[in-house]
Amino acid sequence: MRVLFFIVATLAVMALGNWAYVENYKTQRTLDEVEHLQREIGQIREQLGVLRAEWAYLNRPDRLRDLAEINFDRLGLLPLAPEQFGSVTAIAYPLSPSAQMLLEDLDMTDLIDVRGEVTE
Amino acid sequence: MTRVPLRPLARILEARAKGENPDLIEAENLRQRHEEMADRTRARAEGRLLVIAVLFLCAFAAVGVRMGVISASEPVEPRAATAGAPIATARADIVDRQGRLLATNLVTHSLYAQTRDMVDPARAARELAMIFPDLDAQELHADFTSNRKFLWIRKTLSPEQQQAVFDIGEPGLLFGPREMRLYPNGAVAAHVLGGTRFGDEGVNAAQVVGVAGVEMAFEERLSDPGQSDAPLALTIDLTVQAAVERVLAGGMQIMNAQGAAAILMDAQTGEIVALASLPDFDPNNRPSPLTKGQPADSPLFNRAVQGVYELGSTFKIFAAAQALELGLVNPNTLIDTKGPIHWGRFRIRDMHRMDPIMTMTDVIVESSNVGTARVAQMIGADRQKAFLTRLGFTETLPVELVEARRAKPLVPERWSELSAMTVSYGHGLSVSPLHLASAYAAMVNGGIKVTPTLQRGTDVAPGPRVISPETSAILRKMLRQVVVRGTASYGEVAGYAVGGKTGSADKPSATGGYEDDSVIATFASIFPAHDPKYVLVVTLDDGVDTSGPEPRRTAGYTAVPIGAEMIRRVAPLLGLKPEIEPGSAPGVTLTSN
User: With contacts defined as CB-CB under 8 Å, which chain B residues touch A82?
Assistant: First the structure.
């Protein structure tokens, strides 16, 4: 009984030792990976900053204005003017589907039958 | 510890004498001894258990604390290639009110030399001078061969320059990473942003410090590492700012002006949507300040905020406002405008012939100095001083620009009755155009004082009331009339019901007194006049309109057309729809039968 207990205990210690060893190395590997990822994130953020700066630089008002002037023949872009504001009521909306159908169904070619002279 | 014998002789003999079994005594004593031994062992075992329990407790506590620390701590920030920089390098971006980038950081490199590692200083100096034309090969060589160990060569490098320096192959030339401040829009909003320089410099990093504008005013906020991820949002609108600068630059050129400034401000909140001062500069390459001459000659000088000027007739509206507020006049009160007024050796007269008697509205519309001076006499110097102080004309403005702190208005030393009369038409009191814009906002927004601000999203408590809403409504009508039939008739913009007041003040000459043919022309305007959303102040320094047969310098011909063009361009960008002014339609009388 005692011997068996010792054997089991020794095996358990060996198993735990092995487990701790494996975990230790796994942790170190993960930490390395985290370090690597963080460096990558840092670099990507830096690139993002550069891209954002570049985007802002390419979209700076002076450049856009010059481009609009150079390409006026093709694009015809002008500064926004007060006259360009429209009213919602001035927009022709498409008819509702039922009204559309009604219009199509209404065959009006035969109905008009003119008799006599048309006078004003 | 005394050991009790198992068979004490005295008791054994006694027991034998009585005929009792003496073994019982031994058994009894043995039992007692075993009991004592058991007690001792238990106590020792309990002690050990306690120690073990404490050890386990410590172990578990350590694990628990560690877990707590891990779960509660901030995750480690991802780092760029430069690790462990001792100087705080992160500086928050600056964006406009719609989130468009105004200032950001860019990683670049600085170039320095470790002279003792240099292999061929002469060749390095020669090659460097070829890459950077502003460096001198002789001087560089002298520096490299002197007993200096360390030498900065360039603060920032472009990637091409870096590659070229790298190609020299000199081991003594080294690169240090640098965060550089970049203003992608160039000169747009230059005076608002200000600029930066390098502060503490190390090999691995350098601190970026603001030197002017919001960069300096918000130094603490921008360099706070805790907030470096959150950009600082300004009230400036980049598109509007660019349009304002464009129109202003064009106007300044046409009018041959030395300088110009424009401020566009939200009339209700005091948010500055655009602030321009010309001539301007590129904050990426900030010129060095002038060492001699007038500071106003430098492009770094912010005319809108830093410059204090006598703003002329634009001040007349304040005299009218106070007189209305005090109940001294109403818009139709007749004012004696027969001039000139003689006051000691001083003479107040009008620019052109006017009727000898005019209504209060006409005094403003025709911009009569004499009439306004009479109104100022009614008000009195003390009350006028108190009113203008309440409007903020005697103190520097709390706007978030360092330049504003240096622009203290010039007030009359002794606020006499004559001062009151001259101040009423804008002479003798010098303020910045921004002062004027905030005061105009207070006049037309219903009478609440506004504090100009450049930071978006700050909850500013509504300021104190300076005039009643009724007075404010009358002033709006007066300002509208100035544009409809008065001195600012070129200021009309269809659909936006512009109201405003012109001001042309002779420039003070360097020798004292005033220049003859050099004026500061100002147009302070509001739009739409019936429900003012924005206040626009345009100031031209020494502008002249030469389109007519003779040169015209008054604001009505110089600043007003620029202001009108600005409103025409900017109002649609601000989302203002042109609308028909209420009350302008042909009159309809309600009748009943």
Answer: 493-496, 568, 571-572, 578
